[in-house]
Amino acid sequence: MSNQIFSVLGLFDSAQQLMDAIPVVKPKVKARLDAYTPYPIHGMEEALGLRKSPVGGMVFVMGLIGAIATMAFELWTEGMDYPMVTAGKPAFSWQAFVPIMFEVTVLFACFTSGLGMLFLLNRLPFFRHPMLHSKSMPLITRDKFALAVEADGQALDVDAITALLRAAGARTIEVLEQPAPLGLISPNFLFRVVAGIAVSCFVAGYLTYWGVKLFPVAIPMVHMLDQPRLDPQREDNFFKDGFGMRMPVAGTVARGRIPFTIRKQDDASILMNPLPRTDDVLKKGRQEFTIYCSVCHGILGNGVPSLTAAYGAKPANLVSQQFRDYPDGKIYYTIVMGKNAMPSYAADLSEDERWSVVHYVRVLQRAMNAKDTDIPKETRK
Amino acid sequence: MNSETFPLPQDMLPEALKTPPVTIGPVSPASLDEQVLAPVERKPPLAWFIAFACTSAVMLLGISLIGYTIATGIGVWGNNIPVAWAFDIINFVFWIGIGHAGTLISAILLLFRARWRNAVSRFAEAMTIFAVMVAGLFPLIHVGRPWLAFWLMPYPNQRGIWPNFRSPLIWDVFAVSTYFSVSLLFWYLGLVPDLASLRDRTKSKLRKFFYAMLSVGWRGSASHWRHFERAYLIIAGIATGLVLSVHSVVSFDFAVSLVPGWHMTIFPPYFVTGAIFAGFAMVVMAMVMVRTTMKLENLITMYHLEVMNKIILTCSCLMGYAYLMEGFTAWYSMNKFIHHTFWQYIAGDYRVECWLTIVCNIVIPQLFWVRRFRRNYFTMILVALAVTTGMWFERFVIIVSSLHQDYMPSAWFIYKPTLVDLGILAGSFGLFFTLVLIFARVLPVIATTEMKSVLPGAQPRHAGGSLE
Question: What pTM was estimated for this model as a whole?
Answer without folding.
Answer: 0.78
